[in-house]
Amino acid sequence: MDRLVNTVRPYAWGSVTAIPSLLGQEPTGEPQAELWMGAHPGAPSRADRDGGPHRLDELIAADPEGELGAATVARFGPTLPFLFKILAAGIPLSIQAHPTLDQARAGHAAENALGIPPDAPNRNYRDANHKPELICALDDFDGLCGFRRPAEAAALMAALKVPALDPLIALLQDEDESRALSRTLAAVLTMADPAAAEAVRDTAEAVDKAAAGDPDGPYAPYTRITREFSGDRGLLAGLLLNHIRLRAGEALYLGAGVPHAYLQGICVELMANSDNVLRAGLTPKHIDVPELLKVVGFTPGAPDVLRPAPVPGTPGERLYPVPIDEFRLSRFDLDGQPRTVDGRTPQILLCTAGTARLTAADGTVLDLAPGESAFLPATGTGTGLSGAAATVFRATVTL
User: Fold this and answer.
1) For residue 260, what are the β-bridge partners?
2) Around 53, how many Cα atoms within 13 Å sit in the side-chain half-sphere?
């Protein structure tokens, strides 16, 4: 087992305090958005091994079966198939959706054929992989996820009494709910200026007024958008989406095509090893409207909140079930009772509260404080896990 040295990504939307607080460090005054754990070449973890640190992606590339296990390599290839993160949003992230695996492969090949550089700002498909993801809140976490029912979205807009929203409300009256949502989102994203600027300005004023009169009402979450993204039509797109607040320990699974935006809070995030994002607003980055509309799934409905369930045969472990195999997230809430972590798959263990102790088969001990993590190669041998009042998240694969 290897203690990991991880990179913090300082994206502008990151919280200044959340990740430093978890790590027990003083804030730098700069946003700290994501702490990456894994072997993604954009910011690979370094493993404290043999006088290291050594890049985890290079260790895996040098001995895939030794690090990942033969079964994992046979199933997913010679790279770690997931990326694990701590995500801390201080202001809203962009409204976005991710492609299916087939869409990612086709889009990546098409952009390669056009000669678009991999790091070009107008690149949609930076790799050929899909990007399903799972978030689990460490504290109260606010986001937008999935489409509201068109009738609900229409009522939310109508109550603002903004004449510029009337054309969108009319589109939402279509009896075919998917078509209603598709046409409305397309209208928002293609609305010409100055009409778009007027609609966003008037809607922002109405949202702020409504939220001031009802701080716990349905418009309150959108004031984070009006405050941070003045004039961005992502406000109009956001009104089409469900607001959700996760409590600590609750999770959301986001499959391909699900539009979402994280508004505020800190969570752990586990995803397939990809960086493919199609955006719909709340960002200065590239927005490809036709490609986005091909990727988004226009099925309405409230998202399912996941809560962990006990894992049969593994005392103390509770699993957040997801419908894919590239990643698997579970947690141990340690109470002094020693536990054993299965060693047949590659995994990253992350401590988020208390102090957790890992004990290898040879007696080697590694203590993890909050925010610290370790990589466990697939040796086939279990690892002891202990601690009092400690929480450990386990990221691995399903075979």
Assistant:
1) 96, 145
2) 16
Helices (H) and strands (E) in the chain, counts: 12, 23
- Spatial neighbors of 83 by CB under 8 A, at least 6 apart, are 36, 37, 38, 40, 270, 271, 272, 273, 274
What gap in Å lies between CA 81 and CA 5, rounded to an integer? 19
Distance CA 45, CA 52 (A): 12
The average pLDDT across 49-53 equals 86
Contact present, 234 and 96 (Cβ < 8 Å): no
Q: How many angstroms separate the most distant Cα atoms in the chain?
A: 71
Name the β-bridge partners of 388: 335
Rounded CA separation 371/34 (Å): 12
Tokens of 200: 């966003």
23: tokens are: 């790590």
DSSP secondary structure code for residue 336 in this structure: S
pLDDT digits (tens, 9 = 90+) for 232-259: 999 999 999 999 999 999 999 999 999 9
CA 73 to chain centre: 25
Catalytic residue flag (residue 279): yes
Q: For the segment 209-226, what is each residue's pLDDT rounded down to a tens digit?
A: 999 999 999 999 999 999
Mean pLDDT on 393-397: 98
Q: Which residues pair with 160 in a beta bridge?
A: none
DSSP 8-class letter at 222: G
Give start and end residues of each alpha helix (H) in 88-130.
101-113
Could you say which of 279, 328, 331, 339 is catalytic?
Answer: 279
| Alpha carbons 131 and 82: distance in angstroms, whole number | 9
Average pLDDT over residues 80-102: 97
Asked whether residue 42 carries a pLDDT value surpassing 90, the answer given is: no
User: Is the pLDDT at 67 greater than 90, yes or no?
Assistant: yes
